[in-house]
UniProtKB/TrEMBL annotation:
Protein name: DUF6699 domain-containing protein
Organism name: Lentinus brumalis
Lineage: Eukaryota, Fungi, Dikarya, Basidiomycota, Agaricomycotina
Region named Disordered: 180-203, 414-470
Pro residues biased stretches: 448-459
A Pfam family matched in the record: DUF6699
Biased composition (Basic and acidic residues): 414-430
Domain DUF6699, chain residue ranges per copy: 251-384
Length: 470
């Protein structure tokens, strides 16, 4: 009993179909009039028309209930050319078997006897519903022939298979499914070291250090450009504070002394820092950075000595040294607290004394910025501290970092001997330079001691001849 339609319901009311025969099937059996068939997988090439033909092969059997015998191009019924085996098997359908190097006594390698072409008639009259007229049957015979040979081939283990990685065959031809011989053996590559490298393995040319020396690596950004681009500026680990494990290099330097006294932790004692002076101080490289500190109230501008390379680690150390040896201004002294003024007085006399670890009388007899530091005269590294920058500058300024000043501890006996030897060497160098200048001046005013090598151009007058004439 059919369901009654309820007025106002959301369901569609039932429709009574008229009685009689079903609608007549379209002339092309349900396909469009311009349908030319499915592409032939045996043909190479691409595109929408690859492998298809606009006509039915002559002599094809009559159509089945699933497929008509005619297409929209029925007026162009011409014989088809010999077609290749499906999927590039390399042998034509319906053609006699040719002797090839793959054919041996008793069949193909691995037990594929009889050859595949003989078991595959070209017409293949249909047992495959829904396939075009050009792909008729014969599939049963083809599958039978293939299964018979495939069993023996699989039992033989597919000898002579193409080695992995061999991407083509000589002459651009296709290789039959037997794959017995014919392709040259895979040659070992000399560039890969005998094996394929793992994708995660780091090759020597894959990645460069961010802080490599030289002007041909990486761009050099202006300070404001780096700020506008929101670049995350990283500091060279060489000028960072040393970590607890002390497993990387860092700089050791008493800022009371010139930058030539700066040492790298991995260098031998008594060797001045050289390796890494031209390394970029930041990544990405910038043309100028600014240093602030909790130990002093002024800022240190660090411009790049060479804008093509950006600010280097050597530029940072030199800028700090120049700032520490600058005179303390009168407004800075006036704004100092009473405790800070007492510390300035003590540091002034101590830094110019004969104590170990201080320059002594070589410093100027006036208040210098290095006197402001008191005992915190050791270079402690450069760090990125945005909170301190906001606190001291009232805003987060680009490329502005903190300079840490560490307390100077009493020197050991070895450090004392090393400092004394370095001071003696500097004094001896100065003495030799002054002695050489004095010698050169004295030599220029001394009369020549050797006789002239050239004879006089005019002979002296003869005194005897003049006396005789008188």
């Amino acid at each position: 009993m059919g369901q009654q339609y309820v007025p106002g319901s959301y369901f569609i009311p039932p429709v009574a179909l008229p009685g009689g025969a079903t609608p007549m099937m379209q002339p092309n059996q349900g396909f469009s009039m311009d349908f030319t068939g499915f592409p032939n997988p045996g043909m190479t090439g691409g595109g929408s028309n690859a492998g298809g033909t606009p006509y039915v092969r002559a002599g094809a059997p009559q159509g089945t209930p699933y497929m008509g015998s005619q297409t929209g191009y029925s007026t162009f019924q011409q014989p088809l050319p010999p077609q290749g085996m499906p999927y590039g098997m390399g042998m034509p359908m319906g053609m006699p078997q040719y002797p090839t190097p793959f054919m041996m006594q008793g069949g193909l390698p691995g037990g594929m006897s009889g050859g595949m072409p003989g078991a595959m008639p070209g017409a293949m009259p249909g047992a495959m519903p829904g396939m075009p007229g050009g792909m008729g049957g014969g599939m049963a015979g083809m599958m039978g022939g293939m299964m018979g040979g495939m069993g023996g081939m699989m039992g033989g283990g597919m000898p002579g298979a193409m080695p992995a990685g061999y991407s083509f065959t000589p002459g651009g031809g296709t290789v039959p499914m037997g794959m017995g011989g014919g392709a040259p053996p895979l040659q070992q590559s000399h560039s890969g070291g005998g094996r394929m490298p793992h994708p995660k393995e780091k090759q020597p040319w894959d990645e460069l250090d961010k802080f490599i020396e030289g002007e041909d690596y990486g761009p050099v950004l202006k300070t404001m450009l780096a700020h506008r681009m929101k670049a995350k500026v990283e500091i060279n680990p060489l000028i960072l504070p040393p970590n607890d494990a002390l497993d990387r290099d860092y700089l050791k330097w008493n800022m009371l002394f010139p930058s030539g006294n700066c040492q790298r932790s991995s260098d031998r004692p008594g060797r001045s820092w050289h390796h890494g002076r031209n390394a970029p101080a930041t990544w990405p490289r910038v043309t100028k950075i600014r240093l602030i500190s909790r130990s002093f109230p002024w800022t240190i501008e660090v411009p790049a000595s060479d804008e093509a390379m950006g600010v280097t680690c050597g530029d940072v150390i030199e800028a700090i040294h120049e700032s520490m040896y600058a005179r303390l201004s009168q407004p800075q002294y006036d704004h100092a607290s009473r405790q800070q003024k007492r510390l300035l007085s003590e540091s002034f006399y101590h830094n110019r004394s004969t104590a170990h670890g201080v320059p002594g009388g070589r410093l100027q007899q006036t208040l210098l910025r290095c006197d402001w530091l008191g005992q915190d005269t050791m270079f402690g590294g450069v760090v990125d501290d945005p909170h301190l920058v906001r606190e001291m500058c009232r805003d987060v300024l680009p490329c502005t970092f903190e300079l840490k000043c560490v307390r100077r501890y009493p020197m050991s006996e070895a450090e004392m001997r090393e400092a004394e030897a370095r001071e003696r060497e500097a004094e001896e160098r100065t003495r030799r330079r002054s002695r050489s200048r004095a010698t050169s001046r004295a030599g220029s005013s001394r009369p020549p001691t050797r006789p002239p090598t050239r004879p006089p151009s005019r002979a002296p007058p003869d005194d005897s001849s003049s006396t005789t004439s008188d």
